[in-house]
Structures are given as structure tokens and as C-alpha cells.
Amino acid sequence: MSLYPKNLTSIITEVYNKAVENNDVIQFKSTSKYLKTSNSKEASMKYHLTFCDIDAQKPVKPEREDTVKTKFDPFIRDEPEFAIINSLMNDEYKLVLNKFPIVDEHLLLVTKKAIPQASLLTPNDLNASYQLLKALQGEDQDDDDDDEDEEEENAKPKSRHVIFYNCGENSGYSIDHKHLQCMKIPNKLKTFQDFVVQENPEPYIPNVKREALENEAVAFANFTIPLPKKIVDEEYLVMCYVNLLQRALSYFQQWEEADESKRLAPSYSFMMTTDWMSIVPRSSECADIEFEGNTYTMFTNALGYLHMLLFKGGQKELYDKLLEKKDSTPIEDFLLKCAFPNNFSAPPAESDY
């Protein structure tokens, strides 16, 4: 039985439109354009670049002098104006709107308890996430009827959604309360995961004989597993996740580093669609981009490894110049700096750092 109602997309749109109308959700104005890769190995790939002057548009509340500043957890309380579903899986989760979305109807799957964002994903996390993707794409997990709708050929293409989880201090999360995010993938955007699964579409559970797929065209370490089109249960998802996690964590085995302060905290970007599950181990949430004599510091979470990058106020010049010069090299260098070098085709034991 699905966790989500069949009219979930309608509920989301209704709640979102009402929240925007009441100024509960702040819609940021932004500009997005595609940039084709200039890397010959990635000839078919492109990036979706967005410029948004968030600081100039975000409302600022006046500070009171008599208040004591404490770390605020916006997820710990229930806010009906953002709630899509206020209780899931015996009140373990809630599905809510992102209050400050760059993309319309950006969703957050949040644990009711304050669990650290460095926590591993649980079977329930994976199950709730996968079923959410299925529900958003109108695919009921419990419906095995293969009869096709007569009007299917004339129907509009289904929107693609992705679930992502920024895990660990170098993954790019902003709130240390366990939450997975869900949003639409821009039209016409194919990620490196799409390409590698397109070439190897047969689903499988990794084992000692067959490891996760790696896309050798990108410079950073990456691991992806194709998922079946039919029903995927909790156990299947867990086995795929554990294999990907083992590959990612091998990059943090730094026993030779005596100074603990210099050891990297395990961090990774987890991403999943109904077609694949993927992990990219992360070394940093930010890095400098040097371009035409100027240095810009950029941040990214999992979206960067879905070919979606956000440029903020002070980065408008970089955004414009990259598009003008049609040069994606700084983007590719940046993504590598925030991850680890691709050690394509090396056996798991040889991938340790």
C-alpha cells in the first residue's frame, strides 16, 4: 500500500499556491540557462546554471536587542501553512514545502525527531523517499496492471523528480536536522547518472562479482546503480544503498593521518530517481573558482552532482562570463575540488584514501 494519496500532486500544488498567495513561501526570481560541457569526454552533457540574488530578495526580520541568539531548528515544530502531509509512517516523518524555493514545489521529507544530518539513511528513509518519487510520477507501487491508457500516447511527458540527501559536514546542508529533499529535474537535463544507466540499463543488486557503475567521463568519483521499472521493495533499496555507501566511505579511510583534526568527516551526496540510485563522496561543500583573473567562492550540495548549479548575488559576473565564453571547465574543476578524483575501474580495495 502506498504511503501517499493518489492525488498527491494536486495536494502539493494547492498547498504551494496558497502558501505563495499568503506570502508564507517566498518565490525567488531567478534566471536559468544551459551550458554545454567543453570537455570532449562529456560531449553530450550539459549543466543547468541558475542565477538568483537570494540575499537581496530574502526578507530580513529586525533583531531584538533583548533576545539571546540560539541555534534555531525550523523543522522541530509543525507549521500547517507548509504541510503537505503532517504525519507519515507512524508519525516518523512529515512532508513539507521548502519555505525559500528556487524551484516551484520544492519538497522536504523531514524526520519528526531531531536527528543529525550526518546520520545514515534508514530503511524507512529509503522506502518513504522511493514511494514519494513513484507517487509524484503517478506510478502506484501496488498496481501491477500493465494495461495502457488509450490516451497515453497523447499525454504530456511525466515530470521527473529526484530525491537527494546532503549527508555530513562537507555535503552542503544548511540545517542539521535530518531531511531529504525532492524537486523536479529541469526539462531536457540529463545527468551523468542518466548517461551511465542508459548504457547499462539492466537493474541488479551489487555483489562481490558486480560493483556499482561508474561514469568515467566525469572527473570526480561517482557510483550509480540502475533500479528496476517494476516494484522495488525496502530490502532492495537498502542493499543498493549499503553497496554505494561502502564505496563512498572508502575515500575516508585515512588511518595514516595521525592528526585527527586533519581527517575529513565522512560526507556524501545521495541522489535517487525511479531509474537509479547514486552517491558521490564529498571532500568539501565549497571551493574557489578562478576565471579570467578573478576568484569566486562557490558552494554546492547534491544538486551540483545533478548538473544543477546556483550562482548568487556576487557571482553574477562569473555566471554571465561562463555562458558568454561557453566554457564549462571552471564548473568541472569546481565539482572535482568538492569531491574526490575519479579512480574509474579500480577494484574497491584500491579506492581507499
From TrEMBL:
UniProt-recorded Gene Ontology molecular function terms: ATP binding; ATP:ADP adenylyltransferase activity
Active site: H179 (nucleophile)
One Pfam family from the record: ATP_transf
Region of interest (Disordered), ranges: 138-157
Domain Ap4A phosphorylase 1/2 N-terminal positions: 4-138
InterPro entries documented for this protein: Ap4A_phos1/2, Ap4A_phos1/2-like, Ap4A_phos1/2_N, ATP_adenylylTrfase_C, HIT-like_sf
Highest taxon of source: Eukaryota
GO BP: nucleotide metabolic process
Signal sequence segment: none
Listed Acidic residues bias regions: 139-153
Residue span, ATP adenylyltransferase C-terminal domain: 217-341
Matching PANTHER family: AP-4-A PHOSPHORYLASE II, PUTATIVE (AFU_ORTHOLOGUE AFUA_5G14690)-RELATED
Protein name (Swiss-Prot/TrEMBL): Uncharacterized protein
Organism: Hanseniaspora valbyensis NRRL Y-1626
